[in-house]
Amino acid sequence: MKNLEEQLIGTTWSLKSFESVDQNNHIYYPLSEDAKGFIVFDHTGLFSVQLMAKEALSKDAVAHYRTDVEKAMGMHGYHAYSGHFSLDEEKAVMTTSV
User: Fold this and answer.
1) Residue 30: exposed, middle, or buried by beta-carbon count in 10 A (0-12, 13-18, 19+)?
2) What is the rounded CA–CA span in Å between residue 67 and residue 81?
């Protein structure tokens, strides 16, 4: 069986789901339930994430979103970030620093 590093380094993964939780603990989808996205891991310890909605949402549609960042990404229909990642093979944990 491959370890975490062997499973991630040099790979691109497709988004399965992008969820958040509002102030009332209800699950919602900042970029809609059919959002598309990818995360790429390179051999130097860097990663890059790209997330996109089929179409941008209205200001009213994002009013219940918890953070200003989520509201902005919903209204723009796009979100991206990158940084370094590290792996703890023993605990099977990946940590990202944006």
Assistant:
1) buried
2) 16
Our CA dihedral for 13, 15, 16, 18, rounded to 10 degrees, sits at: 140
SS3 26: coil
C-alpha–C-alpha distance, residues 9 and 34, integer Å: 27
Contact status, residue 59 vs residue 79, Cβ threshold 8 Å: no
Enumerate residues 6+ apart whose C-beta is below 8 A from 90: none
Q: What is the pTM of this model?
A: 0.77
Question: Could you identify the residue written with the tokens 């994002």?
Answer: 62
Residue the block writes with tokens 């219940």: 64
State pLDDT tens for residues 18-76.
Answer: 998 877 898 988 888 999 999 999 999 999 999 999 888 888 888 878 889 888 888 99
CB 40 within 8 A of CB 47: yes
